[in-house]
TrEMBL record:
UniProt entry keywords in alphabetical sequence: Isomerase, Rotamase
SUPFAM superfamilies to which the protein is assigned, alphabetical: FKBP-like (SSF54534)
EC number: 5.2.1.8
Family that this chain belongs to: Belongs to the FKBP-type PPIase family.
Protein name: Peptidyl-prolyl cis-trans isomerase
Length: 119
């Protein structure tokens, strides 16, 4: 798969994690607390501005779900290898309310995640 283009979303931002499968994979299923290898792009919900992309670094990334923001911990389990899922994550499940010290605090975030492998 190629780097996804995230189209601007309309309407109000969700108040809970909104997960949508763009491509349903047919490989192993990601488990809560497991280790995943992914490619991803992240954009700000309001502006559509990209703030992070493993694609732009030229390599996927592997990490345990337990070390990630709550929105990823909730939104990735159940995904299958080979799949692509869009997550829209409110601030409470991302980097917290505005003024929280993180540059993305107070922001609703949109990620498109490609699940490459699970361990």
């Amino acid at each position: 798969m190629d780097k996804p283009i995230i189209e601007p979303l309309s309407g109000p931002a969700p108040t809970d994690v909104d997960a949508t499968d763009l491509v349903v994979g047919d490989g192993a299923e990601a488990q809560a607390g497991g280790v995943v290898e992914v490619h991803y792009v992240g954009v700000d919900f309001e502006s559509g501005q990209e703030f992070d992309s493993s694609w732009d670094r030229g390599q996927s990334i592997e990490f345990p779900l337990t070390g990630l923001i709550a929105g990823w911990q909730e939104g990735i389990p159940g995904m299958r290898v080979g799949g692509r899922r869009q997550l829209v994550i409110p601030p409470e499940k991302a980097y917290g309310p505005a003024g929280g010290g993180h540059p993305l605090a107070g922001r609703t975030l949109v990620f498109v995640i490609d699940l490459l492998s699970v361990n």
